[in-house]
Input
Amino acid sequence: MLKPEFICGTLEGFYGRPWRIDQRHQLFQWMEEWDGMNTYMYAPKDDLYHRSKWRELYPETELSDLENLTQACHQKNLGFIYAISPGLDITYSSESDWDTLKHKANQIQEIGCTQFAILFDDIPSELTPNDQKEFSSIAKAQAQVANKLYEYLVNADCSLIFCPTVYCGNMADYDISNNLYLNELGNSLNEEIGIFWTGPEVVSIEIPVDSIQELIQVIKRKPIIWDNLHANDYDNQQIFFGPYSGRALELKKEVSGILSNPNCQFWANYNPLRTLAMYSIASESWNQRQAFMDSSKEWLQFFGNDKITHEEAQFLGDCFYLPRQMGEIGEQLVESVRFIMKNNPFEWNSHLKTFQTLDANLNSLCMKLMAVTNRDLLYDFYLTLWELREEMEYVSKWIEWKQSGKGNFQSSEIIPRRQGILYEIQKVIHST
Output
């Protein structure tokens, strides 16, 4: 298929259990139906032959699965990018490693793949003694390997994207213009090779347009955003149902594409990916909240329980929204808990009513979810949702005790969390 000028889609690049084949096929079906989505990148960290055993060719069974995946993408008119991650132990100056890399690329080409990525993220940043004899820096070593691979692939009309070791502003000490690694990479890497970038942070809540404009001057090309906004492999106590956000429409003019690396839990990703598709085709205005509301309505069809309402789907999404950000209903819930536990019962009034209403809604939703036919969807966020319910039960018992004015309140053990609605509620509880 023709390679799009602006790539947009999904990359499976997280740590943890890779998605199943049937889940990937469901993803391709969604992407085919959504305007704006055109690319899937295969890069699961826990595919041994992608990363830790990159030197080994895929066995017949695994290779057949990859071929079927490639063909499934092409049948949906989607680009399929295969990524290899040799950086943990590659010797950049080794002819043997170069031959191994070529053989691996040949194997993937034979199954119909023409789009590749080579990843040097999350690896040691120092050269081995042998490589120090050949290269003055790791940037130049990586660039040489990538350039050779591109020159080898381009003869077969293939493309290549590069993920640098310094892949966000934080890793460059927020001084992109003067970062030696990025400057050397921009000067050494073939200009036809794309470069991934995650934004100011590994998980960027916002990606300012001016930060990308600064980066372009250094790397000498528009980057492709490897977007970790909804990624949760760094904290399995988190899950994010919220919309694609924190990126102005103007950003699309400064980048070559956007690929979302979302939740490990497949069924948690409908809203994140659907709203990315909406963002990709938006032209004059972009309302992320409205996009979330519209997406939540569509999400309902996959639950397998027609008694679950749009409002309840929104409730679920608002409670588990974005990193360090809750949706409107989540904010209301936390604020009601905060007020109740900081003030005397005679002052509770509307806050108590809000809490009780939302608590009842949560219990109702949990009961309905137990009856969904899509059990995979339920299991993807079962534990996180039930933990929220337990916290709400704790607060309810505390309210009863406070209203009674009798005895001492015995708290149960609470597992601390770093962020999100559970963290916010626990923070209030601990401070009371």
Q: What stands out?
A: The beta strands are 7-12, 39-42, 79-84, 115-119, 159-163, 194-197, 224-227, 257-260.
